[in-house]
Design brief:
- This protein is α/β, with parallel strands linked by helices.
- 27% of the residues lie in helices and 20% in strands.
- α2 runs parallel beside α3.
- It is globular and about 45 Å long.
Length: 232
């Protein structure tokens, strides 16, 4: 089921998504199962993470993964996992064993080996929620328009060189992995992304608008502010 929710602005979007995520995680925990969540990076994601609170959620009992990562050294400010640590993982005392970061530049692995190693560690059961931002070009994770990784069907995680958005070297989940999810939530803010949102929700293709390639098994939710939704 695809749903589109539009809120007035980026601030409201952040608090709305934080509330929805907390409710979803609490619901899964109420069944006695540990939730699994795939995190994203970027400005709106950081705002969402900063809005998360302890509340009724046991954040220490959630497994966190990443849809993609900038292949820079561990602890670098550009890394999505470091942004998440700074904004909520440390504050809410998520134990290190539940933080499943992608390998960093400087490890003893090639990028291909690093990607395969991460893929091998991913759960086979569906993720409960996959969070995805989207770029003005329609890319999600580090799956960019026209790149060969869009058509990868065997590997769960792949390396990306010459990314059109710096830094140029990245690791990303592939479509089969991102689609192994109960729910996929797109988090999009700003009028600079309005055209890509319109394409993704109408006549876009995987090659020109990679966001069209990801759907949740039971829910695909587009969470937009009014600026991002302005061309719908």
């Amino acid at each position: 089921m695809r749903r589109i929710d539009v809120v007035p602005d980026a601030t409201t979007l952040a608090t709305t998504v934080a509330s929805l995520l907390s409710i979803r995680i609490a619901d899964v925990q109420a069944t006695g199962r540990r939730p699994s969540v795939v995190l994203t990076g970027g400005t709106i994601a950081i705002a969402i993470y900063e809005a998360l609170e302890a509340g009724s959620v046991d954040w220490s009992d959630v497994d966190f993964y990443w849809g993609d990562e900038r292949y820079v050294p561990e602890g670098h400010a550009d890394r999505n996992d470091q942004q998440a640590r700074d904004s909520f993982l440390t504050r809410l005392e998520v134990p290190v064993e539940h933080i499943h970061s992608m390998p960093a530049h400087g490890c003893d692995l090639s990028m291909a080996q690093a990607a395969n190693t991460y893929g091998d560690k991913l759960p086979r059961d569906p993720f409960d929620v996959v969070l995805l931002g989207m770029g003005p070009d329609g890319h999600v994770a580090s799956l960019f328009p026209g790149f060969e990784q869009l058509h990868e069907t065997e590997r769960r995680v792949v390396e990306v060189f010459n990314s059109p958005k710096p830094p140029p070297e990245r690791i990303t989940m592939t479509f089969p992995t991102l689609n192994n999810a109960d729910a996929v939530w797109f988090l999009v803010s700003g009028d600079g992304k309005a055209e890509a949102v319109a394409r993704a929700l109408s006549d876009g293709t995987i090659d020109d608008t990679p966001a069209t390639g990801v759907t949740g098994a039971t829910e695909t939710l587009w969470l937009l502010d009014e600026a991002a939704a302005s061309q719908l």
